[in-house]
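# nightly structure sweep
# worker-07 picked up a monomer target from the shared queue
# config: single-sequence mode, recycle default, output format = structure tokens
# input follows
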Amino acid sequence: MRAFSLRCGALLAFLAVSASAQMDARAELAALRQDVMLLTQRVGELTMTVEQLNRENEALQDKANRSYATVDQLNKAVADMNRTLQAELGDQKREVLAQVAGQLEKLGRQTNAALEAVAKNQAARPVVQTTFSDNFPKEGINYTVQAGDTLAVIARKNNAKLSDIVNANKISDPTRIQVGQTLFIPQGK
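# output follows
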């Protein structure tokens, strides 16, 4: 009976850890989504900067046409500026894409770990009892489940057999008793 109680406790602890891991994975997923949103916003800002620079470039070209610089000199300056801007924009794009790829890879690993934990949890579920014996004492008492009670604790308190309580009350999953639930305890005090 103690071994069963210890297994139930271990199973509950495992389920709590599994639920905590799933919550941690959800929180990490939300943080990664926020990071991707911020990166998208930054790319938008950089695009607006490039557009502003293009407008300024056009303004400079207009001004240069009115000054004494030659057209050839202006064309070279504009070409140099465009090469510099394109190189800078390309570097920034590569940097942002590398960050996003790293975050997606991390998210993928976390998702796989969460899925494996869920799969293990499903595999470790106890078999649900579907048949019950009528071989238990027919005399006993009624007991109202209190906070913190388990079937093992109730059996010990009332000097009864756990299997008799399960069979008398047709409890298919002993981990699912609820506070306030009334149980019949065969051979109770």
